[in-house]
Specification:
The protein is α/β, with parallel strands linked by helices. The chain has eight helices and ten strands. The chain folds into two domains: 186 residues, Rossmann fold (3-Layer(aba) Sandwich), CATH 3.40.50.300; 66 residues, no CATH class. The termini are close together. The site of adenosine-5'-triphosphate has 13 residues, from strand 1, strand 2 and helix 1.
């Protein structure tokens, strides 16, 4: 068993020896070169786990989420959700990205209902579900507004409600709070934890922020670059709810250890807990 794999039956996502190469043209001439973006990446994610991925720029975080979402195909290896191989995009995975990706011509409610329309759900049912998720993200009073009338934090709440509305098994989040100011970011982190507790989704969250990864997650995965590969996994055994946890010595110690891993100051895979079969 490799370091990313777990031994119990609650595995939701299994990433098995994933490799992704891109073909790049050289600047001069017609030569092409293979570039390895992800190499031999294996990782299991538990049902209802909140797992964050950090790593240096270009280590393959977004490439991995693209593969998970089914928007691109691995060169070799595979990703399995509930033992079923990912072979393209599907509604079992919801995606929330940094740029909100809202439809500007649709109201907030119509944005949230988009996936339900794609599913062919009748209007009344759509309305009930969108109402439930607008309330969950605290935007019920803004249902008839349009994206241009919202703040960045509100847009991101709409994106989260939209992704959750069609009840995906897994939520994939790529730097969702990266464009927000520090205060809004912390508010949305708490909101996301509340939503996660209420929905019990499995969440994979990509971020550049070690602080954000620790605050949110059950485990933090560190990738290294060139080629992108799994470096370390840190279980985050801090109490939940996490309010006030940033001031504790354990939090600061985890921050230091993950930063050391990220900056290559420790040997790979030397600092992994072995508590629960990982
Ligand atoms: N379509 C593509 N063709 C060629 N190379 C690509 C392509 N997509 C990504 N890459 C390369 O693969 C590597 C991983 O890219 P990726 O965007 O996944 O990194 P990342 O970890 O998400 O980076 P960042 O933190 O800067 O967002 C990079 O070197 C990137 O240039």
């Amino acid at each position: 068993m490799s370091i990313g794999q777990i031994a119990d039956k609650s595995v939701k996502i299994s990433v098995r020896v994933l490799n992704k190469c891109f073909t790049r043209k050289r600047e001069k001439g017609n030569n092409v070169k293979q570039f390895v973006a992800l190499k031999d990446f294996s990782l299991d994610v538990r049902e209802s786990e909140f797992l964050s991925i950090v790593g240096p720029s270009g280590c393959g975080k977004s490439t991995f989420l693209d593969l998970l979402s089914g928007l691109s195909e691995p060169t070799s290896g595979g990703i399995y959700i509930d033992e079923k191989k990912v072979e393209g995009p599907a509604l079992d995975r919801g995606i929330v990205m940094q740029g909100y990706a809202l439809f500007p011509w649709r109201s907030v409610r119509k944005n949230v209902e988009y996936g339900l329309e794609v599913k062919g759900m009748p209007k009344q049912e759509r309305r009930e579900i969108s109402q439930k998720f607008l309330e969950l993200v605290g935007l019920e009073e803004f249902a008839e507004r349009y994206p241009y009338e919202l703040s960045g934090g509100m847009k991101q709440r709409v994106a989260i409600a939209r992704a959750l509305a069609y009840d995906p098994e897994v939520l994939l989040m790529d730097e969702p709070f990266g464009a927000l100011d520090a205060q809004t970011r912390e508010i949305l982190q708490d909101e996301l934890l509340r939503i996660w507790a209420a929905t019990q989704k499995t969440i994979i969250f990509v971020t550049h922020s070690i602080d954000e990864a620790i605050y949110l997650s059950d485990r933090v995965v560190v990738l290294s670059a060139n080629p992108g590969t799994l470096r370390d996994i840190f279980p985050i055994e801090l109490r939940r709810p996490r309010d006030g946890v940033r001031l504790t010595p354990d939090y600061l110690e985890l921050t230091r250890r993950i930063a050391d891993s990220l900056h290559g100051k420790t040997p790979p895979s030397q600092i992994i807990h072995n508590g629960d079969g990982i």
